[in-house]
């Protein structure tokens, strides 16, 4: 059962999606839920079906006091590294809220202080607190939507299905066709045994 945890008024949850991918952005969501918000389906986006995530996205967008989603793309990921890019995405999502939160709940154990607003990092917070779970659903659904869009440009990588994660199919396509502008050049795209020493 997810906790509401309303120690503070206007408590925002934030989380990211796509950190371990080989292609596409890292995407963060931030959301402030009303105190009376309740939902029996809401959970960590990773344990929900695609259908449930999409259904929840509509509910969250309708009922949230404020929400925001931000992509940080491949060039910035390669420049900053994935940890810093993930934190930047969360900061930018928080920037996009129409109401400033009084406290921030962050999924995970790494974050940089957000100006003038206290925060707490919670490991596996997306399975513990409603606001973080809600942020995870927003981040996941918006990122998946983007990956399906760019799939149309490069269907051979099947991003519509793998969403840029390092599946066997995705890596085989990289080995055969090379990298696109959407791939993260700073990531090891292929295991060492698949790299040809020519």
Automatic annotation (TrEMBL):
Gene Ontology cellular-component terms listed: cytoplasm; ribonuclease H2 complex
PROSITE patterns assigned: RNASE_H_2 (PS51975)
Coiled-coil region list: none
GO BP term, example: DNA replication, removal of RNA primer
Primary role: Endonuclease that specifically degrades the RNA of RNA-DNA hybrids.
Family of the protein in this entry: Belongs to the RNase HII family.
Protein name listed in UniProt: Ribonuclease HII
């Amino acid at each position: 059962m997810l906790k509401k945890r309303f120690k503070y008024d206007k408590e925002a949850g934030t989380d990211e999606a796509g950190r371990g991918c080989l292609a596409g952005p890292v995407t963060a969501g931030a959301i402030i839920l009303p105190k009376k918000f309740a939902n029996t389906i809401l959970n960590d986006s990773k344990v929900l079906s695609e259908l449930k995530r999409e259904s929840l996205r509509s509910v969250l967008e309708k009922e949230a006091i404020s929400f925001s989603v931000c992509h940080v793309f491949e060039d910035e990921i390669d420049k900053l590294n994935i940890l810093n890019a993930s934190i930047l995405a969360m900061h930018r999502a928080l920037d996009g809220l129409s109401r400033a939160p009084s406290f921030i709940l962050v999924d995970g154990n790494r974050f940089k202080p957000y100006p003038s607003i206290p925060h707490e990092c919670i490991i596996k917070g997306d399975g513990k607190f409603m606001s973080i779970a809600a942020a995870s659903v927003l981040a996941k659904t918006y990122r998946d939507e983007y990956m399906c869009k760019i799939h149309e440009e490069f269907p051979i990588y099947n991003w519509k299905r793998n969403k840029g994660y390092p599946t066997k199919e995705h890596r085989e396509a990289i080995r055969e066709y090379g990298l696109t502008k959407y791939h993260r050049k700073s990531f090891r795209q292929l295991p060492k045994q698949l790299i040809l020493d020519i």
